[in-house]
Amino acid sequence: MYDTLKSVFGFHSFRPNQETIIRNILEKKDVFAVMSTGGGKSLCYQLPAKIMEGTTVVISPLISLMKDQVDAALENGIAAAFMNSSLNQQEMGAVNQELHNRELELLYIAPERFAMPSFLEELKSIPLSLFAVDEAHCISEWGHDFRPDYLSLSTLTKHFPNVPVAAFTATATPKVQDDIIDKIRLRSPFIVRASFNRHNLFYQVKTKREVGTQILEFLAEQRDKPGIIYRTTRDSVVKLSEFLTNNGVKALPYHAGLDGDVRRQNQEAFSKDKVNVIVATVAFGMGIDKSNVRFVIHADLPKNIEGYYQETGRAGRDGELASCLLFFARQDIPKIKYFIDQIPDDAERSIVMHKLNQMVKYASHYVCRRRQLLSYFGEDYTAGNCGSCDVCVDTVEKVDATIDAQIVMSAIMRTDQRFGINHIVDIVIGANTSRIRELNHDGIKTYGAGRDKDKNHWRFIVDELLAQEVIVQDGGQYPVLNLTAKGFNVLYGRETITALKREEVKKRGKALKGLQFEDYDEALFERLRLLRMKYAEEQQVPPYIIFSDKALHEMSTFYPVTATDMKKINGVGDVKLERYGNDFISAIKNYLDENPGISVSNREPSYYTVHKVLTKTVGGTVETTYKLFKQGLSIDEIAKSRNLTISTISGHIEALIRDGREIEMDRLLDAAKREEIEKLFEKLNTVNTSPIVEHFRGRVSYDEAKFVRAFMLRQAQT
Ligand code: ADP
Ligand code: ZN
């Protein structure tokens, strides 16, 4: 198992649950597994396919993904093919032949093929290792994605009593789970319910104001990384996409109203890294298998947490850090309510409304976002500070709400914990209702204590206290408010209460700290990315199938220049090493030759040591440039006289500025332009040059931007 993991897939360790699932499959036991998107389900059947005798048949409804999956498997040296309606007769014949000749380790099929007797007969005539049912919730009518085609799978275990069956899904409530196991007739399966927690996703919520500009600011930090922006309406999708394009972002729109061809092209451009950003309605995402999505932005409030979780789940499937940003405005709530009000069925309407409320709570309370999401799916997050949401890393604007909390709780206590939310709020604001008069509640001490703030504010405080479990709602039809142990602590001044500020004050830069990647060499990464793009184009596959972003980050950190070192990189197995190893190694070698200043003190990649920060030192060659510059030579002249490229010399000058040497900035670019560039760096609050260069549309070069940046960084240090 471990050998195959390393040599075929190039991975160093299993993700949670992969190992036990695979062990059970190898022992020919049935398996039922719920694992979140990106959890690594494919490996659970691809690895056994490689080890076990016979062909593994994967049944999947997502025809659009089959080709990518097969391409990825072939890249790893697994004999794989697929059969679905997109193949012509000849292609189908060829796959059939391979299957018949027992040449296939892995075969992907669409479910309807399973209803064809001739196909079943063929399968019965050859040795099979495993049936893997992907997206297994599709067989359940309780699942949100029911497909009648899947019902033919109920005969699977009858036709193939000796072949193990493993069913996988990313979404299954206990009800759906029982239904799946029953419908596929799994034989006392080994059951895995993996945590829904996605460790590598950073969750944050920002107050929505001018969302276009806010998104531009966010993108400036992203250094052209790929991401998805969700909007609710087609119109807003188109407008935002145009706005971003006009501001130099490579973005395309996607919504169900676009012509089919256009939609396909836009999706393809995104998955092949031709554009960085796709602006889309929720129609986008099904059947997208891009693993290097670095951020998902929701520019409008989603309707419920299920949808939000599924959409954000498309970020960071490669396991690298990715960010989920929600722009929240209370003004978005009535728009969604309007649609909810149109639902005729009372029960259904109240469920949908309840789900919207949960979403609003997620955005507005001072509770770890991760904990809220997981608790929605019935999972207890006990780890305390998650370290990867805006609440936990403390970049939110917050206020002390202890006094307000005490007022509310005092009202609850003075009425003996016998009343519900509305009545308690009425007491606090000093409302003159008949109920208050009847019960003489206008006589208690807390009556009207919160008169200076409005009802919404107190409603919010009550919600906050509920979310933080300082108070609980108790009782059935007329729930009343009770204090918890924590509530008493707050009431008696032993603990304080913090709440999110409702109108967030701008605080820049800091919020993004949690997103920084470990230091890697960006210039090298860029170069390797282009090389990867070249291969991807040649082979007509998405770039991440050649190497994941994670693999390139590691290469840009450890600079592997031998095959042995290259093999230590995550995702580099034997086949990929043979196909691409040499080219990537030469690219890295060339890069190191051209940049002698890089001290690679830690060339030996070790996955357990902290990644070393690389430092560029001002060496002898830079000193030579300095001497010539001080003699009055221009960059061009220095480059000519030293027989070096202009960009090398510019790099030297940049290093000299950073080093605090006397470099007359006026000789490099004119003062007015410099001021403009400085202002823009400040405005965008970035240290990246690409947004600057893009903004000036050719008027400012990368070198000029880098000089100004070096100058500003130097100033900041002194
Ligand atoms: P799922 O089908 O569960 O959504 P995938 O099977 O597509 O997830 O896997 C998500 C990503 O994780 C892929 O890029 C895959 O190569 C990677 N991956 C899977 N298993 C491992 C592992 N053990 N180590 C490192 N990366 C892994
Ligand atoms: Zn958190």
Could you list some keywords that capture this structure?
single chain; 718 residues; alpha/beta; Arc Repressor Mutant, subunit A; 7-stranded parallel beta sheet; 6-stranded parallel beta sheet; 31 helices; 17 strands; binds adenosine-5'-diphosphate; binds zinc ion
CATH second-level architecture of the largest domain: 3-Layer(aba) Sandwich
Give the tally of structural domains. Answer: 5
How many helices? The count is: 31
Report the major sheet: 7 strands, parallel
Morphology? flat
Helix content: 40-55%
Written description of the protein model:
This protein has 718 residues and is α/β, with parallel strands linked by helices. The chain has 5 domains: 2-193, Rossmann fold, CATH 3.40.50; 201-379, Rossmann fold, CATH 3.40.50.300; 396-504, Arc Repressor Mutant, subunit A; 522-615, Orthogonal Bundle (DNA polymerase, domain 1), CATH 1.10.150; 620-717, Arc Repressor Mutant, subunit A, CATH 1.10.10.1390. The protein is 46% helix and 11% strand. The two termini are 56 Å apart. Mean pLDDT is 87; it is low at 504-517 and 601-617. Residues 368-370, 386, 389, 391-392 line the site of zinc ion.
